[in-house]
Amino acid sequence: MIEILSATALATVQDFGRFGSLGYGVGTSGAMDHLALALGNLLLGNPEDAAAIEIPLFPFEVRLLQDCAFAVTGAACDATLDGQPLPPNWVCQGREGQVLNLGYPTSGSRAYLCLAGGVDVPAVLGSRSTQLRGEFGGLDGRALQQGDRLGALRPGISPLPLDFGVLAPSLALALHVDGVPAMRVLPAAEYERFQQASRAAFWAGEWKITTQSNRYGYRMEGEPLLPVAPMEIRSHGIVPGVIQVPHGGQPIIQMRDAQPSGGYPKFGSVIEADLWRLGQAPIGSKVRFIECSYDQAVEALESNRRYLREVGRLVDLHREGVKA
Amino acid sequence: MTLSEIRQLAQWLKEHHLAGAEFSRPGVQLTLRRGGEPVSVAAPAAVAVDGPVLRTTGLGRLLLTHPELREPFVAVGDQLCAGQLVAVLQVGELLLPQRSPTAARVIDIRVPCGTTVGYGEAFLGLEHQA
Question: Which top CATH class is B53-128?
Answer without folding.
Answer: mainly beta
